[in-house]
Amino acid sequence: MVKELHRYIRAYFRIAKLSPWLFILNLLSALIYKTAAIARKFIAALIIKGLTEQNAEETYFFIILFIIVYIIHRASYFLNFRAYSWNVSYCYRTLQTKVFEKLISVDGDFTRKISKGRLMNTINNDLLEIGEMNDEISEYITTYFQIIAIYVVVAIYNLPAAAILFVSSTIYTAIRTRADRKFNYYWWRSQIQNDKYSNFLGQVISGLQEVKTFNMLSPLKNRLAKIQERYDKAYTMQRKYNTIRDNDVKFFYYTFHAVLYAVLIIMMAMGHLEIDILVLIISYHETIIVSTRDLTDATIEIRLTDVALRRVSAILNYKPGDNLEFGNLNLDRLSGAITFKNVSLSLNHHQILKNLNFKIKPHEFIAIVGYPGSGKTKLFDLILRLNRPTKGRILLDNIDIEQFSREVYTSNVAVANQIPFIFNTSIRKNLNFIDTDISKQIEACKIAGIHEFIETLPQGYNTILRENANNISGGQKQMISIARTILTDAEILLLDDVTTALDPDTAKLVPRIISRLKNNRTIVMITKKPDLMKAADRIIVLDHGKISDIGTHEKLLERSKLYRSLQAVKSEVGPV
Fold first, then answer.
1. What's the whole-model pTM score?
2. Domain 338-567, what fold?
3. Which of 31, 216, 330, 463 is most deeply packed, by most CB within 10 A?
């Protein structure tokens, strides 16, 4: 058991971000108050001895000493509590930051390997459990030494009593430890089902409209029932071993308590034991059972926290499959030229993009077109560095994009997605994430054509957007997202089919926005809208991951059957 726990503790120190001096303070203060607890009972026995011998001077001395030790006990306990609290807060904040930074850097495979439900449970529960484990470690170490000290003291005065204490605490510990291992296993199994439930519920909430529209209630309830059934089985076994650990084991405690009392009474009747030693051994028996329980409780918590450690470790040690590390190049000025040289992309042994070769000039407006599944989104993912090419190179201003630092690259390449994400806060704060300059925010919103709408709101830019911005229309949400993208002042803007959620009148604004933006930015846009294709300087036509053709609208109409079929879609976008 000790070896097993040491392994858990070593794993803890590899993951947890503790303040060393706070942990040492936590450990030392725990050692002091536990030593004081042992001393208090010893001094109490000496007070009884002084009373029985009618030695007033000795009795008063030990009473004063008892008060001093009690004060030390309470002061060290308070200090231990404060050190523990400070360290939990420090560890929790640090791990939160580490997990957040990791999530920013992961690739698209991350949520396939670690479900969103598990991720949210880890963030909400596991990080706090890890922070609290520093107290369990100090409790485990100090209680271990406290029990040994009690054995030694009792053995000095009465070896048979010490033997009874040793046997009773050993059996007590063995039963609780075995029950704890089983409890921990089934607790872990129930946590898996909790993760599945959280993930399932998140999916239902995200697709609530489809659930209602397609009457999915019955099959979804069946799926929920299976999760609940597995949880119930794990929870039932968990409670079984919890009962053994915390209730049934008391039978052995009371049995040995009775045996100890009987032995001590016999020894006292035979004149081999004084009243003060009798009181000392009885009080130490109570202490050692409590200490043994504390030791096993600390062991339980350490084992339970090991599950949390493994879950957090899986996040922090996650390695993107595409090795998406950034370089160290900090180049301030970029013109926005993009070059694809023999670029191919394969995912899960399936080739998505095949030998792409093209160059986008600075301040050019490029439309990426093709039928669903042609590879348009994955091309964007490569530019955004969400995936790494399986073959070939991507250049920005003739420099391999892998050489740029994260800060430089992400500040020069920005994206507005087809389904934008808006934070549950005010419009102003959503824009503040990019730039806090109010005049720039207003200018970006004017370019995006959303400023006048914002001004009509009761609180204007201070209007709170509810979760998923469901108190404004999809088109207004998209225009705020575009304004936020403009505000980045990035050299390259990627627009991923941003007109999908726009009504026809709002969609007419997009060509005007692009016309203004391309004066000082490179714009690459995925679109289904024929009029936006016409507005582009050039169009890249993708077909099953390959470039079918590249050219202007007029040239492609002449020579590309695929492009002509894409143009046949009814346009909802007005003229440039």
1. 0.59
2. Rossmann fold (3.40.50)
3. 31
